[in-house]
Structures are given as structure tokens and as C-alpha cells.
Amino acid sequence: EMHVGHLRSTIIGDGVARVLEFLGDTVIRQNHVGDWGTQFGMLMAYLQENPITSNELADLENFYRAAKKRFDESEEFADRARSLVVKLQAGDKECLALWGRFRDISLSHCQEIYELLNVKLTMADVMGESAYNDDLINVVNDLKAAGLLVESNGAQCVFLEEFKTADGEPLPVIIVKADGGYLYATTDLAAVRYRSGVLKADRALYFVDQRQALHFQQVFEVARRARFVTHPMHMEHMGFGTMNGADGRPFKTRDGGTVKLIDLLTEAQERAYSLVKEKNPELAEADLRNIARVVGIGAVKYADLSKHRTSDYSFNFDLMLNFEGNTAPYLLYAYTRVAGVFRKLGKDFSEVEGQIVLDAPHEQELAAKLAQFGEVLNSVGEKGTPHILCTYLYEVAGLFSSFYENCPILSADDEAQKQSRLRLAALAGRTLKQGLELLGLETLERM
Fold it and tell me: Smaller CB count within 10 Å for the chain: N or C?
């Protein structure tokens, strides 16, 4: 199942993809999941020993844990698991059928989370490591033909001048291990070739942990040298920092295990539910639950997206659920204030006539900020940094609040001024809603 470490790549990638689509680009999502390799041999070997039903298999987490324990404790079991991986890679029918079952169960867990997170990834976007398996031998042969492969300690490697160890020794990009196994670099090279040659991408954005920076520098350079990039394609590693606990260390459970993402999202919704119920005890249960979902999930996503992508950050429920400061609840509430004005009128944002006339300083400041929306989105699309959009929306919300308090809308001096201020408020509301949507956050009409 997905754990908290999977959150950042998922939502940062989704946010940038949404912005690029909004700006008119054709975006092809490629969900590069680890759906191949040793772990599947381990699961198959354990299933041979412990035949179980599909229902029991649905709890893949416990099954995986038990298989991993056997793998670590028994050399005979580990050898059997490895031999099953070889059979799987060779296309053994029985192994492929079992692998398909494990993969489908695992991906269905992911899909539930994507839907809860309001992320646009679907099953059709999954292009896992397994998709490139048949091309790996071609990658090796083509590197050999290009004169790039060198044998080193039994492994097949590429050595590039610009990559050296601290002692000045050449740093290998290992393509085939001494035991004949392939590595991430091999699969990533096959993926580069597919994205350039088949998808004809102009730009390939990789949303992967910052700690993989060297890996991608090497892979991109090998791909260029081997001429795997046939259609001109920019390759950009959009690295990100880690999400840490209050102690500044990577987020873990009390007993040191990894935190399941579903548990974190459930807790966020429960905390939001308590907060909303406290503020609005008269609301119907269904409304409370819906608001709690939008606020809870939005708070987790926004707390992450509002930090610079490359920074580590400390996860803190109390801060992210605060209705003051640069948080999702504050922005959602700002939007409901705009919606509230139009609800009183019984009108939609689009039903306001008249010119916008900017007389008061608060009107001018808000309008100047709204005019920057396109520029902000272009910057997000170019740099892959959603925090720029978060900061912008926070500023819009603050300026709308000042405008709302200082420039009476419904009790304006005359009808022309009232219509002008309504149009400005409507534009602020649309910008907030559109901006939050591009970050993958839902909005609420009332809170």
C-alpha cells in the first residue's frame, strides 16, 4: 500500500500536470510504478507455501510482510523466490498470472487513494517497470553497439568522464549486474527511449525524490550519448525533499514503521470533522462529513504543496488545519466569503454586468494581483513549483479580505459602484476556485 513517502511525487506531479494542461499543453501522465522484480518472486514463493483465497490476498500488506520475513530468514526460500523472478522475466505463464493478481490488487489500493486525494491519475496512466522488460536486452545491445559498455568486476557499466567519486575515481552507471540482473538505470533508459521515440514528448518531467538527483543526471547523459533521445526532448528531474515528523526526521509510526498514507488521510479527515462540528454543531451529518473530507484532504495537500518542492518539511496537523495563515482552511474560507456575497444576491459569479472601475486603493491592489494569474501559472509550468501558486492564492485571499472589509459591496454608494465591486469580487472568487482546482483542491460553497 502507499505510504506517506508516496504523497509528494503524487500531488506535486498532479499539480504541475494540471497547470500545464490549463496552459494548453498536451500532458501524458506516466505512472512509473515498481511492479517488477524480487518482491514478486518473494510473494509467489510464499503463495506456493500458503495457498490462500482472493479475499485473504486483498490484505496484501500482511501477506507481503510475512513473505519478507521468510525471505530474510530462509536461504532456501530466498533462492526459490529468485528463481521464480527469473521464470517471471522469461514469461512463464503461471508466474505471469500470479504476478497479474498481485499487481491488480496493489494498484486498486493506489487508485482508491488517488481518488480520495482528487488526483487525476487512472489505471490507464500506469506504465510500470514491467512495461519495459522486453526492451532491456535491446538497451544493453545498443549501448554495446555504441561502444559505451565496459565490463567492471563482472558487471556491465557505462563510465562517464563528468561523474567521479570524492577520490576522483570514475563512477559507474551499472546497466547489468554481475549476476545478470538489471537495475533502475536499465529500465529508466528504456523508458527514456519510449517517451522520446513513441510518445514524441518535447519535455519529460520526473517527479522523484531529490536523493535520486545523481541517478537521473547519469541516466539522462547516457541516454543522450547513446542517442536514445530521437525526438528532441528536454529531460528534467523535478526532485523534492522529504516529509518529516515533528522531530525533523522522516515521518514514521511510533514503533518506527512507515506510516500508511490512508491512515494519515483518515486522521486528517477525523481532525477536520471535530473542528467543523465544534464550529457548526447544527450542520447535518452528511454535510459535516463532506466539509471534513474537503478540508482534511485539502489541508494535507496544501501544507505539502505550499513548501518549495526541494525543501524538507515537518508535518504538523495543528498548523495545517489552522484557519489563519497560509493554509487550506484559510483559502477555502476566503472562497466561501465570496460565494456568500453572491448567495445573498441569489446570483452566480457570471451574472454580474457592468464595468470594473478601480477607485479605492484596496480595489486597485486586488485587481493588480488578479492580473498576475497567467504569469504565475507560466512560472509554475516552467519550474515545476506549485508553491508559487499557493503563495499567490494566499495573497489574493488576503487582498480580497482587505477589499471586503474596506469597500462595501452590497451597500455601495451607487449601482455602478456596486456592480463594479461585484465583478471584482466574482473575479477574485473565480481565480481562487480555479487556482485551488489546479492544485487539486476542491472548494466549498459554505463552511
Answer: N
